Amino acid sequence: MTLLKRAVTHTIYTPHDSRPADDYPDPEEIHRSVAEQVASGELDLSDQDSLRRQREIGRDWPQFGQTMIGIERLDNIQRCYEQVRADGVPGDLIETGVWRGGAAIFMRGLLEAFGDRDRTVFGADSFHGLPPPDEKSYPADEGDRLHTLDALVVSRAEVENNFLLYGLLDDQVVLLEGWFKDTLPTLTDRTWSIVRLDGDMYESTTDALTHLYPQLAVGGFLIVDDFALPACRKAVEDYRAANGIDEPIEEVDWSGVFWRRR
Predict the structure, then answer these.
(1) Could you tell me which residues come within 8 angstroms of residue 187 by beta carbon, excluding any fewer than 6 positions away?
(2) Within-domain flag for 4
(3) How confident is the model at residue 244 (pLDDT cuts 50, 70, 90)?
(4) Domain boundaries, position 233
(5) Phi, psi (degrees; rounded to nearest 5) at 219
(6) What pTM, to 2 d.p., does this model score?
């Protein structure tokens, strides 16, 4: 699994393949962050090992890698899967917001490595980028510009091809195309062992929680990739408060969190 993690994050290759900063949602903030890391000695732009460490913790966007979540969040997926498998927790795995498919590919790789034929990996995505913010219904998304970023638009064909590169596109993979508010309500007959949210926005995160969490098995894991983003964090906190969820939230890294359903 270590090899697959390094392949989907593109850390198996050199030189490092970071995307230029002006492709990020807030270029000024990224430039500021990079400048601070360079000044503190945390980041050396001439040091491939330093750049690779940024990839490992999911702090950059790769040009060629199939995921931007980093090694530590992939490790988290593996630990959660191994735990539900060991404990006999039933259910499929789903990621909402797959980008180039890397995390979902890794999920399918886990099933293959463990000979698990009883579960399916679902990947939900518009395959056209993120939706424009519905600021009237979801004020927390006001001013969100993620829908303007071409770097986040990855076609279904490209994602399917990425699965094929690893020999992992088969009947244990289901890709759901469309906005979460339209596609996720069609999955109410499924049981989930792992639900991984990577929708960034308040609306997308709320849609995923609303339509998937009720079917998360006891002992299953809810993973949030973008808890560092204020809108996403608020969506999670609001849903937990409204539904009396008090399982402790555990950190994965600077952005990812998870909890286990009791």
Answers:
(1) 94, 122, 176, 211, 212, 215
(2) no
(3) very high
(4) 70-260
(5) 90, -10
(6) 0.89
